[in-house]
Amino acid sequence: MKLIRHGEAGHESPGILRADGSIVDASDEFREFDEGFFACGGLASLRAWVDAGCPGGSTVDSDVRLGPPVARPSKLVCVGKNYVDHAKEFGGGVPDEPVLFMKASTACSGPFDEVVIPPGCDKLDYEVELALIVGRTASRIAASDGLDYVAGYTVMCDYSERAWQKEHCGQWVKGKSADTFAPLGPCMVTTDTLTDPQSLCLWTKVNGEKRQGGWSGNMMFSAAYLVSYISRFMTLLPGDIIATGTPAGVGMGMTPPRFLAPGDQVELGIEGIGSMRQRIISGSS
């Protein structure tokens, strides 16, 4: 299944993306795709509803705005330097274990929403990432069980203000958490539909120029291992998001660096999930 949320920002409704590209509203049957939905067996109920032909569901205009496919995650946990080629372009060596940092969940936005450059930001960068959606509470689980705790997958662009991330002391979170810095979508693909997270192609284009091209099989730490590893340090709740890292080709890694500017168009996607696009705009001072 492919889960989507549609409607105005902050007022999205749950829905299903069918194989023919049509959208079916599910709000009469399901209140929201959030922590409670995943924790209380919502995916199984949704699957039964879809298998029954979506009774009571109405088709939604295909031009409707899409929001993040999951509502209000309690945490957005990110993994840095998880592809060797990106670790080398980032600098500081290849890590021996996963590098973890957080993005504020308020950074989440829809897959086609504009990305707003905040005042004082002049080193805006992009990173295409495979994001995992946690399906049930995970605490100190074994790596062999990691994927059993995943509900599905989506695409995330980890936008970063590199100066705030690397030059302002402290944790990376300062350069990662501005509003609109975590677009997600266009849908969440469930694990029964996308069965192997380590066999996916990732790509990014800026103004039509291909910048990133990678393969999730090149992750140093697999999706299953990451769920297990992160659960050693914090309890993961249903609906939480884990961003698994990015391949090489980010603007910071170029000579000279090529950061984003107002008017730029960023397109990115992952095989088997879909693609999304953002226009970069300047925020108010």
UniProtKB/TrEMBL annotation:
Q: Name one Pfam family in it.
A: FAA_hydrolase
The identity of this protein, by name, is Fumarylacetoacetate hydrolase family protein
Q: Which molecular function GO terms apply here?
A: hydrolase activity; isomerase activity; metal ion binding
Q: Which UniProt keywords apply?
A: Hydrolase, Metal-binding
InterPro entries in alphabetical order? Fumarylacetoacetase-like_C, Fumarylacetoacetase_C_sf
One GO biological process term: carboxylic acid metabolic process
Per UniProt, residues of the Fumarylacetoacetase-like C-terminal domain are: 75-280
Q: Which domain of life is it from?
A: Bacteria
Q: Could you say which protein family the record assigns here?
A: Belongs to the FAH family.
Tell me what organism the protein belongs to: Oceaniferula marina
